[in-house]
Amino acid sequence: MTVTDIPAPTDRLELPPLQLGNITIDTPVVLAPMAGITNTAFRRLCREYGGGLYVAEMVTSRALVERTPESLRIISHDDDEKVRSVQLYGVDPLTVGRAVRMLVEENRADHIDLNFGCPVAKVTRRGGGAALPWKTELFTSIVQTAVREASRGGLPLTVKMRKGIDEDHLTYLEAGKIARDSGVAAVALHGRTASQFYSGVADWSAIARLREALPDIPVLGNGDIWSAEDAIRMVRETGVDGVVIGRGCQGRPWLFGDLMAAFDGDAQRFRPGLKEVADTVYRHAQLLIETFGEEDKALRDIRKHMAWYFKGYVVGGELRAKLASVPTLEVLRGLLDQLDMASPYPGVDAEGPRGRAGTPKRTALPEGWLNSKDLNEDQRAGIAAAELDVSGG
Ligand SMILES: Cc1cc2nc3c(=O)[nH]c(=O)nc-3n(C[C@H](O)[C@H](O)[C@H](O)COP(=O)(O)O)c2cc1C
């Protein structure tokens, strides 16, 4: 892999390992849970480059307690994943508690994260995801139940959330304190509201405020880290104990190598030429075949990664289109072989924002949701349906 030096920052960042309960993460970096992305194949690619914690795709508590094959696939880990990290989504304390208990009793995880950041309309419309922390009693009950069940197995439980529903209905400070008081091992904040989706710029000042408000537990910062330099800057500007990386590593699993180097005060960065990218794409497809056990499904999955992998590289339009609809591993090999393998790292064109962006829109919520922090009877009945059919964050 091509590695280059960039000028090292003059004052070295001294950040201690991230401590989540009894788990020590030497490089304080977390791969953000991403539905449809952070499966065993992608986690393997990422962790081969660096240290950190690598969270699986979110799974709904209900699907898990019902043991659907897809939910069991999502929570599976490779044998060499030292910390088996699972993210649960749930709206009902009882079901969340049962899911955590199942993970603990069946020894299926070492760390559990709860998702309170999902902005997708079909989730928030039913009061789930980023809409949920607004209902403080329900939020408290879910987190307390999950912490209690997780602690029976000595597992650290963390929560991941957004700033709130919109700028007029922020929830993160109150939710952070509730989570802290409930005994979570850490809180991660994505510096956007639900109504922003992935648009605009993440508000790192909110992350700094949360860090200040919760001096007694680790706070992790999330949003718009596209490079190791961004990560260092976030730590300096907010004081967080670790960073959570989502879209920045899409098509760039080597970012975890850059992050480990940066946190070690090392100036080396991965700058892959086109051949190295092509090799990684091929390996990613092979690993996806192992993950899904079906070539067809794996190749369908790899298609969405193509634009990310080749962002900024010299690849013709026709070849790009073919890569984005590649049907088999054999065809993939043939297409990759057509690339100009001598083509070097393109520099800034391969860097910066990538992946989902979207436009801000009003968050869909259950009737009267914002009128009170408590649930009314209709809302209570409504959220029971909120776990059905959910994926993504
Ligand atoms: C494709 C995709 C899937 C996601 N799925 C989840 C998820 O399952 N659980 C979750 O908590 N967040 C999910 N997120 C949100 C990310 O974890 C992260 O908070 C967000 O992308 C902001 O970080 P970033 O700016 O580094 O991308 C997802 C984001 C993307 C782009």
TrEMBL record:
tRNA-binding keyword on record: yes
Statement: the UniProt record of this protein carries the keyword Flavoprotein: yes
Listed cofactors: FMN
DUS-like FMN-binding domain ranges (all copies): 31-329
EC number: 1.3.1.-
InterPro entries: Aldolase_TIM (IPR013785), DUS-like_FMN-bd (IPR035587), DUS_fam (IPR001269), DusB-like (IPR004652), tRNA-dHydroUridine_Synthase_C (IPR024036), tRNA_hU_synthase_CS (IPR018517)
Reaction equation(s) it catalyzes: a 5,6-dihydrouridine in tRNA + NAD(+) = a uridine in tRNA + NADH + H(+); a 5,6-dihydrouridine in tRNA + NADP(+) = a uridine in tRNA + NADPH + H(+)
Active site: C118
Protein's job: Catalyzes the synthesis of 5,6-dihydrouridine (D), a modified base found in the D-loop of most tRNAs, via the reduction of the C5-C6 double bond in target uridines.
Family: Belongs to the dus family.
The protein's name in its UniProt record: tRNA-dihydrouridine synthase
Source species taxonomy: Bacteria, Bacillati, Actinomycetota, Actinomycetes, Micrococcales
